[in-house]
Amino acid sequence: ASVSEPAQKCCTENIQPFLTSILEELMGPVSSGFTEVRSLFDKEVNEIIQDFQKTNDMTRLKENVDQLMTLPYNSVKMEPCYLKVNKLQELLQDLKSRFKVYHIDFMIQRTQNFMQELMENAVYTFEQLFSPSRQADSAKVATTIEKVKLRVLK
To answer: Which residues form the Niban 1/2/3 domain (predicted)?
Structure first.
């Protein structure tokens, strides 16, 4: 009871007024990282579509889709996504001194883990939605891939 009132006063005066601006500032790099994940998925699926339209090879299509499934674990391709979030390092340094925010590296790593998880979910969903269509008419496969991609991105 004796701590509650001073703690509430401290939060109301020293933290609450800054929360909105802090969240907006932190969400910039986080949002751009997740946007980069979306763009990477879109780009990779577009490459699958273009390759299939050139070759019309169902075996190669299966190989490309199987390779897409490894995308979340491809550190080279995921690197640009992760780099967007690294900007949090600078932003969180200010918060560290002002609000005693610790474990900055952990926060960045968790955000990157969520990005990888999002990509895992995207490629898994793509594969699940596209699998029944693999036996379809090869003339419709590229259109089907595009529809599945748009559904996943939605």
So the answer is: 9-154
Kindly report the number of other CB atoms within 10 A of residue 141's CB atom: 20
Tell me how far CA of residue 39 lies from CA of 16, 54, 62, 80, 98, in angstroms.
35, 22, 22, 11, 35
Structure tokens at 115: 């990005």
Q: Taking the mean position of all CA atoms in its chain, how far away is CA 49?
A: 22
Domain ranges, ordered by start, for the chain: 3-153
- Contacts (Cβ under 8 Å, ≥6 apart) of 53: 142
Are 85 and 105 within 8 A, CB to CB? no
Q: Is the pTM of this model over 0.85?
A: no
Q: Give the gyration radius of the chain's Cα atoms.
A: 22
Across residues 77-98, what is the average pLDDT? Answer: 84
Higher-confidence residue: 133 or 115?
115
> Helix, strand, coil proportions of the chain in percent (round to 5)?
90, 0, 10
- Residue percentage of the chain with pLDDT more than 70: 94
